[in-house]
Design a protein that fits this description.
The protein is of the alpha+beta class. The protein contains ten helices and four strands. The two termini are 23 Å apart. Strands 1-2-4-3 form a four-stranded mixed beta sheet, with helices on both faces. It has one domain. It is elongated and about 65 Å long.
Amino acid sequence: MAKLSFHDEIEKNKRKSLFLTFLVFSCLLFIFYIISLFFDPLYRNSLIILGLFFTIIYVIINWSYGDKIILSSVGAKEAKKKYLQLNNVVEELSIAAGIPKPKVYIIESSEMNAFATGKDPKNSSIAITTGLLEKLNRDELSGVIGHEISHIANYDIRFSMLVATLVGLVVLLSDMFLRSLKYSDSKKNNGILIIIGLLFAIIAPIIVRLVQLAISRKREYLADATSAKLTRYPEGLASALEKIMKNNKGNLHVSEAVSHLFFVDPKSTNLDSLFATHPPIEERIRILRSM
């Protein structure tokens, strides 16, 4: 089987992003239609029209402002001039990758982590925790930044951003079902909606993880390899991963909806052993040191 080229990966991510957008649009319309069946026919058409309007607005907002929503949700602040070394590293590796320099953000946390987000290389951002900046030397920092630059260059960020908004949609739908109870036209319908709402509430965390797993672990290994290519020093990234493995507590306060975006899993949960969203750090280190 022929190996996919870097450009093939980019086109694949673009196609997956379009499909995911269509899936979100279709699912929302279907959910509104199902909810409308529990209402008096007098209000049914109005609800379907409202659902169509809401769906269009939801998709447009998340496509246009999804990255800003994500950055705001984790408390990221734009890096000021005092973060000169960080900005220099980002600029150097952006030039090496042939993309515009992303906006750089800081997250106040002792945990060591980072992520990239945006629609495309021209509209992208990288966020770094203060813990990462304080505990890594320049070579190690370059390794991590190179990894995130790779996600930007091959359009991983677009697909990951859409997955984050889709995960948020699962939570929204669960709440929507429960709130629909007071407007349903019979006790029988109320019982059905309660069951549906409870099912959503129970399975939502599992759905979140399964959707996040739609992002192949291969993209993390590819980003590691690309970072080694950009920096010409795989040991820098391997050493950074080693420090992260020894220092992180897994308690970065972020929503499960965005946890898959990060360089390493930011939270320790009971689902990690069953539905790990990141490849094992030990394996990533082993591969890097074999280069």
